């Protein structure tokens, strides 16, 4: 699939917020109760404002993947690591989501490459998210044993310390 990847702009905040809501439901439908998605959608305006602020502040690097007709297919967010653990890579992949209709098309791979290249990186993945775990393992990430409970479930940390083979 042909995809165009470019940095998110403040003017993209509304589309990005809607994409984020959609891809969360697609990725986590079997892992979270429907009430989580309903609650998130009820705060859509807050999410638009939040994305606008994040993009304007430049506190993370946010990339958007678009189809040739301009439809948002996915996004990634990276930045300096937020975990205080020593020995972790300095780069954190804070989010990478792709529409279910784009699964298996290379959009996720293209976003990951554009976001982190071959840099050592770490991320948190929701326990039980088999599709995401397999994707990250294919790109050289492995669990390091760290976990953290979140409102939506247990997250497990994955780290890629060197360039994948």
UniProtKB/TrEMBL annotation:
Instruction: Enumerate the Pfam families for this protein.
Output: Acetyltransf_1
The N-acetyltransferase domain is annotated at 1-159
InterPro entries listed in its UniProt record: Acyl_CoA_acyltransferase, GNAT_dom
Descriptive protein name: GNAT family N-acetyltransferase
Organism expressing this protein natively: Nocardioides cavernae
